[in-house]
Structure prediction request, 275 residues.
Amino acid sequence: MARSFHWREAPDCTFAVIGEPIEHSRSPQMHQAAYNRHGLNYSYAAIQAGPSELDDALNHLVELGCRGANITVPNKLAARNWVQQNGSLTGKELGAFPRAGVNTVNLKTKQGISTDEPGFMATLPQIGICAPCRTLLLGAGGAAQALLLELKSQGWDVSVWNRTPSKWTDFLDEHSLESELLSEPDPEGFDLVINSTSTGLTGVSLGIDWSKAKSGVVAYDLAYTDGLTQFMQEAEDHGVRAVDGRRMLVEQGALSFEWWLGIPAPREDMLAAVK
Ligand code: ATR
Prediction:
């Protein structure tokens, strides 16, 4: 695991990721693998800062000459604000979705984008999902809301569930969207079940009855840990194919790399570095 730095102690670096907590991040090793493949003498640092310090942290990295930063939990909305105050947002989803977070910033031009949604979509064919299918989305945080908009805009049939249902009812009202809201995380009838709750990291069970799922369903946890997440473990215990968020980490990182540098990202090297 790479060393992490409080933002005030940030080292000279070419690129960085900023989050809190950040020690667990595999972005440094993943981006370093890409630089190695291209023979680039660049460095990528893991920087600790929360939303209230994000402006200071980003301004500090600008002063250090850092070229760009990935922004991770819980800073994506704060990063959007910084970009709006200092530069410009790019990308269709950011225009369409006022609360969408920014996960990639160019510290020279002060532009910001989100590579999370296109990164997620790019992982689907890799896990054998090549066309829109009946999908259940669990959780209603920023990542889930951005994904719902993306999937709906591409014509997917998506049902949602959240421990606190009002988060979805408010969101659906606000965006004039229609989506079935389940009262339980019931996998029956779905082809794809996406877990975007933070239970992937905390180890809490969502109590999903996988015996009701149809054959061929895929359980997709957006989180990743050293072993299987609780959500994946329970799915696999019932013979359900489960995948974790590593491919998504790689795809969003690869798209950031390509946006910053304008050269193809070596995805296989990046994936091997986070295995
Ligand atoms: P993001 O990082 O995507 O913005 P977040 O805002 O941290 O995510 O949201 C975490 C999600 O995990 C929420 O949907 C949360 O449910 P609530 O809205 O009810 O808080 C969900 N979550 C966290 N712990 C959970 C648990 N023990 N059981 C079910 N859902 C849980």
Observations:
- The pocket of 2'-monophosphoadenosine-5'-diphosphate is lined by residues 73, 139-144, 162-164, 167, 196-199, 204, 206 (CB under 6 Å).
- The two ends are 12 Å apart (CA to CA).
